[in-house]
Amino acid sequence: MAVLRCPTCGLQAPADAVRFRCECGDLLEVSHGFRTRIEPDELRARRVSSAPLDRSGVWRFRELIDHGLPAEHVVTLGEGNTPLLLSAALDAFTGIGELRVKHEGWNPTGSFKDRGMTVAMSRAVARGARRVACASTGNTAASLSAYAARAGLEAFVLVPEGATAESKLAQAAAHGARVVRVRGNFDDAMRLVEDAQEGKDLVLLNSINPFRIEGQKSIVYEILEELDWSPPDWIVFPAGNLGNTSAFGKALAELRELGLVTRLPRLAAVQAEGASPFARAFAGKFAELVPDPDPQTVASAIRIGNPVSYARAVRSLRVTDGVAIAVSDEDILQAKRAVDGAGLGAEPASCAAIAGARELRRRGVIGDGERVACVLTGHLLKDTGAPVGTPLVVEATPEALRQALG
Ligand code: F0G
Fold first, then answer.
1. Alpha carbons 47 and 54: distance in angstroms, whole number
2. From ligand 1's centre to the CA of 353, what distance in Å?
3. What is the whole-number distance in angstroms between the Cα of residue 405 and the centre of ligand 1?
4. pTM over 0.90
5. Given this model, what pLDDT does residue 222 score?
6. Which of 168, 233, 291, 362 is 20 to 30 Å from 178 by CA-CA measure?
7. Is residue 240 part of a domain?
8. What confidence tier does 201 reach under pLDDT thresholds 50, 70, 90?
9. Phi, psi of 267, deg, nearest 5
10. Domain interval for residue 352
11. Helix intervals (H) in 67-185
12. What is the pLDDT of residue 33?
C-alpha cells in the first residue's frame, strides 16, 4: 500500500494527507514498498484488453503507479497510449539518427498533464473532495477542468493574466471551471493557491501533489515498453515547474529497483533561456537555485521562474547522470517550424525539447549513434499565438484563386 514519505527527513504521512509539503520544506512523495513485480507479458496483454482501466495508458501500469486505489474511484478519460513516432525530417534537423518522438499532445485534453491528472483527481475523489484547484500556465488548468467535470467536482484555476494561451483558458471555461486571472506571473499564482488551500477544503492538483508525479511516470513506461524495455540512451523533454523531470527520474529509479531495467537513460531537461533557473543551477553543480523574478519566453507554458519541484528534479538528474540546458526563443521557434513542417505539430514549449536535442547533439553531449527519445508535451492547437505567416485572402472568383495558386 502506498504512503507519502519525505525523501529528505523520512517523515511518513498517510496516502490521503492533504498537505504535500513536509515541515522540513521538501515535498512528500509516494512510496510504494513494491511487493508485486509486474511482468512485461502481463502489460502486453493489457494493451489488447477492453477493460476500462487497461484502456488507459496510465492505469494499465497501476501496480507501478497507485496500486492501493479502489477501481471505483478512478476518473479516466482514456489518457496515454500516445504514439512514439520516427521522423526523417527531425533526424535531419537535429542530426540525430532515428530520433523517436513521444507525442503527448495526443492526450484527451491535448497535453501530458492528463496522465498526472487522472491519478491525482482519482485520489481527490477517493478522499471525498468537493473542490479542486491549481495554479497553471494553461495546460494543467485545461486538464484539471476536464477531469473535475468528469468527476463532478468544483474547479478553480489560477493563471497569470495576459500570459496564458487563450485556447487553454477556453478549454477550462468550457468545462465549467472558475478561471481566476492573477495580476502576476505563474510563480505568484502558485504561491497564492498553496496558501489559499489552508482551511478552504481545496485539494491542490498542481505537481506538488505527489499523485500527479505518479501518473506522469507512465510516459517513461510507454517509451520503454515500445522499445521492448531496452532503454534509449537519452530522454529529452521541456522543463518548467520540473514535475516531469521529477517523475521521469522516479520512474527510472523504481524500474531499476524492480529489475525491469538494468541501465538507465540519461535525462535532458530543456528550459527556455529567459526562464532557466534549473539549467543555471545545473551549470553551478546544483550549489543553489536562484529564481528568475521576471521569467520571459515565447513558450508561455514554461514561463516559470521558481520551480516547485526543484529538489526532486535535482535527485532525478543525479540518479540518471542527466543534464539541464537552456535554448533561446529563436531556437525554440526554429524547432517549432521543423516540428510543424514534419506534420507532427506541437506548441512552442514542446519544441524546446527538439531545440535542446539538436543543441546537445551539436555539442557532442549526445554522441554519434546514441538512441534518443524526445517528449513533445502539448498539441499544436494549444498555443496558436506563435507566428504562422501572412494570411492569403482572395476575392471569391476563379480568376483570383487561379492567380493566388500561381
Ligand atoms: N510543456 C508544456 C506544454 C507544459 O504545459 C509544461 C508545464 C511543461 C512543458 C513543463 O513541464 O512543469 O513538468 O516541468 N505546464 C504547467 C501548467 C506548468 O500549468 O500547465 P513541468
1. 7
2. 12
3. 40
4. yes
5. 97
6. 291
7. yes
8. confident
9. -90, 140
10. 85-110+232-256+263-382
11. 88-94, 113-126, 139-151, 166-174
12. 82
Residues sharing a CB contact under 8 Å with residue 378, sequence separation 6 or more, in sequence order:
104, 105, 110, 111, 112, 139, 301, 346, 347, 349, 350
Which of 241, 248, 310, 317, when mutated, tests ligand 1's pocket best, judged by the most ligand atoms within 8 Å of its CB? Answer: 241
- In this structure, the residues whose C-beta lies within 6 A of any atom of ligand 1 are 111, 113, 136-140, 207, 238-245, 301-302, 347, 349-350, 377-378
Residue whose CB lies within 8 A of the most ligand 1 atoms, among 102, 137, 194, for a mutation test: 137
pLDDT for the residue 386: 62
Integer distance in angstroms from the first to the last C-alpha of the chain?
67
Q: Count of domains in the chain?
A: 1
What is the predicted pLDDT for the residue at 390?
77
Residue nearest to atom 6 of ligand 1 (CA): 301
* Residue from 112, 114, 139, 190 to probe ligand 1 pocket by mutation (most atoms less than 8 Å from CB): 139
* Residue 365 maps to a domain: yes
- The DSSP secondary-structure symbol of 112 reads T
**Which CATH number goes with the domain that contains 320?**
3.40.50.1100
Mean pLDDT over 227-244 rounds to: 97
Q: What is the pLDDT of residue 276?
A: 98
All residues at 6 or more sequence positions from 163 whose CB lies less than 8 Å from its CB, including other chains? 137, 185, 186, 300, 303
Q: Residue 388: what pLDDT? A: 62
Q: What is the pLDDT of residue 199?
A: 67
Q: What is the pLDDT of residues 206-233, one digit of tens each?
A: 999 999 999 999 999 999 999 999 999 9
In a domain, 346, yes or no: yes
User: How sure is the predictor about 387, in pLDDT bands with cuts at 50, 70 and 90?
Assistant: low
